[in-house]
Structure formats: C-alpha cells, structure tokens
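HUMAN: Forgive my ignorance: could you write out one protein's sequence and backbone structure tokens?

ASSISTANT:
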Amino acid sequence: MRGFQLYIAFLLLVLGSGQSQLSAQQMLQDKINIEQINGIVESLPSWRMQKLHEWRGYVDRLPSAEKQKVIVSAERVQDFDWPSLFATQYMEYKFNGNRTNYEQTVNKRRDVLSRLVLGELVENKGRFIPQIVNGLWLTLEESTWVSPAHIVVQKSGAGLADPLDSYIDLGAGRTAADLSAIYLLLKDELDEYSPQVSKKIVKELADKILTPYAERDDFWWMNLREGTLVNNWNIWVNTNVLKTALLVDTDDVRLRKVLQKLMVSADKFIDFYPEDGACEEGPSYWGHAAGELGQMIQWLEDASGQRVSFKENNKIHQMGNYILHAHITGNRFLNFADAEAIQVPYPAKIWTYGTLYDDASLKAFAAYLDGIKGETLSLGSVQDFLMTAGVYHDLRKTDGTALRKNTAHYYESLQMATLRSNHAKGDLFFAAIGGTNGVSHNHNDVGSFMLYLDSLPVLIDVGVGTYTKETFGPNRYALWNMQSQWHNLPIINGIQQKDGKAFTAQDVKFEQKGNTYTYSIDISQAYPKEARVKQWNRELIFSPTVNRLLITEDYVLEEWIQPSEIMLMTPVKPIVEHSSISLTLANGKLVKIGFDSKVVEPSVEAKSIEDIRIAKIWGDQVFRIKLSVKGNKLKQSVPYTVEVVNQ
C-alpha cells in the first residue's frame, strides 16, 4: 500500500493538487439519468448492428487509393514475427526507471494487429484472419494491459502485475476499446475460424476492464474519493471504458452499473475545468482530455438515439475551442507545461466538436490540420482509423484555407494571453502565461512567454523531454527543462522559481489600449523567500502594427545578494552587439533584442540537447541569452525590446 501512497503523492506534487476549480455541476448526470441509461441498454442490440453497418460503410466509401494503402500496410506485416513480452522487460521500470523498452514492444504488437484488422476490413477475403488471430490471442494472453510505469499503484507496488489486484490504466483502456471494435467488426469471421477467439475477447474484457470498473471505486483517476487529482486520465480511460461497455457487454446489470459510474466519474473531469474551457495540461494533452470528452459526448448522443443533446452546453463547447486558440501556425502549437511545440492534433476530434456545436471555425480548423497532416487515416489503432474514416470526405469538402483566428485571446483561468499581429510582412505571434507552479504537468514557468515570427520560433519554451521515472517523481525539477532558469524568466538573486500551488502569479492584467495590448504580471510570489524579492512586475506591451514587443522588468528587492539575470531561450544562434542581440531566422528575417547597455550586460550560452524528444523539435542545441542587471540597486527598471527589423 505504501507504494500506492507514494505514487499518488508524487502525482499530486507534479501534476497538481486535484482540487476542483468549480462546484459539482453534474452535466452528464443531468442528461444521462437512470431513465436514459435504461433506454440505452435496451436498445443496444439494434444500436450495435447500426454501428457495425455504419463502420463498414465508412470503409466501403473510402477512395480506392486509400484502400490500397491499407491493404499494402497489412501485407507488409502478414509474416510478422510476434515478439515476446518478458517479465524482466516489464521489471526494468522498477529497477532502472526504463519504461520504453516494454512499451515499444507492446505498441508494436498493437500496431501490427491494427494494420492486419484494417487490411481485412478493406479486402474482406479472410486472407489476414489467421495472423489476426495470432495477434489477438497473444494480446488476450497478456497478464496485464497496464504499463509498468502505471502498475505502481497496485497494493504491492512496482513490479509485475498482481493477478489478484486488477488495475485499469490508459493503455488498458485503449487496448480494450480496440479489441471491442474488432469484436464487433470481425466476430463472424473470427467465429468461422475459431469461435473460442470471440469468447476469449469477451471474457478478458470482462475480467480486465468491465468487472473491475463496476466493482471498484478506488482507482485514483475515477475521482470518486476525496483528495484525488483530476487530469486527462479520467476522461481518457472513461471514454474507452464507455466504448468497451457499449460494444461488448451483455450483462445488463453490470452495464447499467458501469454507465451510472461513468457519468459520475466523468462529471468530475468536467467540473474540474474552468468555464472558459482552458486546458491547463496544454494542447498536447487536449486530444486526450477535452478531445476525448468530445468523443464521449458523441457516443452518448449516438447510443441514446439522439434523445439527449449537449448542443446548448457552452462550457463543453469552449473546452473544444481551446485547441484552436492554442494554435500558432502550421504544425506549431503553444507548448507550456508538458506540451510539444510541433504536433498535429487529430482533425477528427476537432471536427467532432465542430459537428456537436455546429461551429464553422472548428470545422475549418479541422480541415486546415487535415491538409497539414497528409496521412489522415491512422492505421495504428482500429478505433482511431474508424474515427478518421468517418469524417474523411467531410474534411476534404471543407475549405481549411478559410481559417481565420482572433488577433487576441485571453484565458482568465490560466492567466494566458495569445496575440498575433496578422502583419502583411510577417505575422508575429506572442503568448504569455501566469497561473501557478502547481498545475498539471507543471514546469516552473509562471510569467514566461514565447514569440514566433510567421512559423519560425524566436523565443521559446524548450518543452518536455522523453518520459522517464524522473519525469513523474520527486526528481522532476532536477530535470533542466523543467526549471525556470531555462525559461524566459529572471533568476532573482541567484534563485529560481519553486514548484507548488503556493508559488503563483499576482496582479495579472490583460488590457487593450488602441493598437497595443498590455500583459502585466507580478511574478515575485513564484520565487521562494530566499530570492529576497518584494515585487517583480513584468509588463509586456505588444504592438501588432509595428511588430514589436516591449518588455519592462520593474522590481523591488528586500536585499541585494548577487546580480539578477533575465533569461531568454532561443533556437537561433544569437549575435551579441553593443546594445542589441541579433537573431537571423531561417527565412532571412532579422529580429533584434534591444537593451540599455548601461543597465544590463548581455551574454550567450549554448545548451547541447541530448534528449531525443527535445532534439526532434529544436535540433542539437538551443541558446540561453542572459541579460545580467548591473549594479546592486534594490529597486530597478529594466526595459528591453524584441522587434522585427527587416520585413
């Protein structure tokens, strides 16, 4: 039990306290009550047949060229030699913190099985069935579908999965949803080959997913007990459990129990979100947070025969809109917290919100991303393939080039502003964030900001590295990229920001005056008392008409210990001049950081990137610009500008 308690303590530390931001609203329970659940259960046999024909129709209507790609993909793995999953591989996480070796093997199994299934769906000749059965049987024989990094919550702690202590994690949920879809789509074909396969699917889904879900309320992500944290796990697992129950379960008593519990649990996720719909975990997690909620809503409306609708629910609508406001340009997104700077969210999940709320902007955004993504159809997951196949033609009929976004947007809940110049000779994009250092997937970044010109990064958030044991453990803030000194923030008297909800922004304001926007924030409370700072007010004035950002750091210290330093992170090699630093971007445009050389001393430090995940975004190094404040004044004003010089 102690292993479970320590793990949850670590999660609370690095992911947030889990306290709801709002009182219980019970949005799902109000719509999906006992009467609605009874109606869903009673109509499931006919609904499943409808779903089967619907999915088959998605596949049949795909263009011949897309179908051929699917068949070729299946043919390439027709002779796949299925890898074993060794106990020693699973135990690596306990002994050395490595979670990827086991997960890579599992993911390869899942990917190959999916490609074979999709090939069979398209071709429908039985050619892939024997190898599909191999993949299914191996998956069903796995002792657990839970990741070694997540099994630590079992009562016996990290190690091999306890057969008497069933747990459900993200991987288990995804595997269950895929197996459920395969069961519905290929049951007849599998029964013709061997009826035991379908029986085995039903049994393992019951044993590993449906019964534990129905009988237990102590899984932390369910949020059915006091003091548990709320994050994307809740809705991600719940949505996959919903799909599993609707597609497979024939035990009406258990099914009703599962659906009732799902509504209560998923409501905790919705309650936790602020009214403005902002995702504190960042856009990389949106697809597994609000993006999954959109899927849940769609499935609930569908399974109820459209007798329930969430169309008038503004909060859920705004949760969908967040991903649009978090977009910079192309495949560039905000990457505060553990988000990735380069990504393409599932267009189908965004389209779902556009459909649920008849939102033309979200539909256009989905089509825009579809044009970037290229390979729209996901072949590595059956459910993702079906989701994208269902909107394949809709995305192509919609004009993504018509996408237009607001010049300014502000999320009060995150104290996050996004601004863009829409300048004819170069689009300057700016974003800043306040909040606390106790949010989910936190980096110590209160008051940090980023700046892009067109699609090119100028000042950046380095972002998250490869997940290891340290990422979600007590050593999280020993990782350099989690520290405030590697963000666009000051080091005050030699002291960095501290993690935890107590370390927070103060007096955050966002205002428009004429053609300029001002974002101001006092970041002094984000630093521990050792920083000896009374006030550090950072004012950022964005002038879109001239493509300029004016920053002023006004501070008051209790004591001067050593020079404070203002850090600015960039992937572009800086050239230091007398009173400015030049950044020449890949498109030849020049950005200059101007400062008063009487006030600050500039320097540049190169940081080698060893983490593969970070290197894929920024290359083999990034640069840290230091503006060291001269003198030993307790009260000082430090202005500097970031400006596009040649356009």
